[in-house]
Design brief:
Elements (H helix, E strand, L loop, with lengths): L1 H38 L2 H14 L3 E7 L2 E6 L6 E5 L10 H14 L9 E9 L5 E9 L1 H13 L3 H5 L1
Antiparallel strand pairs: 1-2, 1-5, 2-3, 4-5
Helix pairs in contact: 1-3
């Protein structure tokens, strides 16, 4: 009886694990499809100059919300650039489009995928009217930030690479 119960419990756990893996696979495919749509959209074309600039500079923070994308650079301190959807004639991003934008930015800026350099956080904001909004942020890790800011003191040749 005990052995039958153990086999049944193991089977249930395996079924639950399999269902979870299938859901994750479907979610990943859906995000891939949305990213492909973003690559083909005018939003990506309008955003390309900012992405090219961000590839050559050190990002201190990158924020994605329904209004657009905000880039904050490490050097010079406090410098920012923003891609706001309304200013470029596009509608606000839905939560699904925000997730696709996050995945697109990870592909365009591979340094964001390095978990030792950047931490990703997803925040849920409850509005007064009961609605919920989401936002994503990539924040540079303090250890990596210190390494970059101190590097210019020890090796002046690195100054050009940081800018």
């Amino acid at each position: 009886m005990g052995r039958l119960f153990a086999i049944l419990a193991a089977t249930v756990v395996l079924i639950i694990l399999l269902v979870h893996l299938i859901k994750q696979y479907r979610y990943a495919r859906m995000v891939q499809l949305r990213v492909r749509k973003l690559y083909a959209s005018p939003v990506y074309e309008a955003m390309q100059p900012l992405l090219k600039a961000a590839q050559h500079r050190q990002l201190e923070r990158l924020s994605i919300d329904k209004t657009g994308v905000l880039f904050q650079y490490l050097i010079p301190s406090g410098s920012r650039s923003a891609f706001l959807m309304k200013n470029h004639g596009f509608a606000y991003l839905t939560p699904e489009q925000q997730d696709a934008m996050r995945a697109l930015l990870e592909q365009c800026l591979p340094k964001l995928r390095d978990h030792t350099r950047y931490q990703l956080s997803k925040k849920k904001h409850r509005l007064l009217n009961g609605d919920v909004e989401y936002s994503y942020s990539y924040v540079m890790a303090n250890s990596y930030k210190i390494t970059l800011t101190r590097a210019t003191y020890y090796d002046p040749k690195l100054q050009a690479r940081l800018r």
